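Today's session is about reading a structure prediction critically. Students often jump straight to the picture, but the first step is always the sequence itself: look for stretches that repeat, for charged clusters, for runs of hydrophobic residues. Only then move on to the predicted structure, which in these notes is written as discrete structure tokens rather than atom positions. Here is the chain we will use throughout the hour.
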Amino acid sequence: MISSAAVAIACGGATYEGDDGSAGAAGSGASTGTGGSGAGGTGATAGAGGTGATAGAGGTGATAGAGGTGATAGAGGTGATAGAGGTGATAGAGGTGAVGGSGGTGGVPAQCQVSGTPGPGPHETKFVFRTDSTDPVYIYAGCRLRYDVLSCADGYNQSLAMFADCTTPCSDTSGGCIACGACFEEARAVTSSTPTEDIWPGNTYTFGTDPQGCSCHRGFTAPAGKYRVSVPVYLSESDALSGGPSVATIVDVDFDLPAPNGVVVVDLPAFASPLDP
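Below is the predicted structure for this chain, in token form.
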């Protein structure tokens, strides 16, 4: 079963320091202390702090936003200040140094791009889970309906963090921590007459801890491109509530973001009733 766990990355806004010393010596070809590094990073390979650098070398140690510019295949954000280094990196893989795994904007690999001019987003998407069976199948729902969205940009390898429940923005240090109670668990029945729906606003998140020790998040707009929704399906209510190996199947549906009319239909298989011989 696919896990929805998000990677916890520090996101209090601190600049990542490079391995090779102080700010003045940063970056071959960068001007003193500002172009290739904000805090003594490894430096850029192309004279202006990562601008136009290739595959992962450009962004290393660059300051806010400059590191990832022009970098290829998502590694450009490495060492950029929190949340800014993802510019030009791919979603999911490009966030290394942009606080985590969602990358930022742009730089979607050619094989993951969609046609047309979809605009900047966010692109809200409604998932409609349905089946042709009169016998119900079940989807687990705790705090939220359990399904995953994955991006083509990283080979459909990492589930996106689509919501930031029970956390505060990392940029907001004025308030305290959010205390959340336990979520009600249910097995959502899906039949031919009772589909179930869920809405993804089109954002992704990375997580960390703010200076007060509170769990916090940084939000990103998921770029237009190819994605996959993946949902575990169960034969009975008890199986859905217990989870684990009792899952009957996992249904994967590939879709484009933005989706036509903002809707993605996920057809769940029909199974014989578990009480049938």
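Discussion point for the tutorial: The first strand starts at residue 125 and ends at 131.
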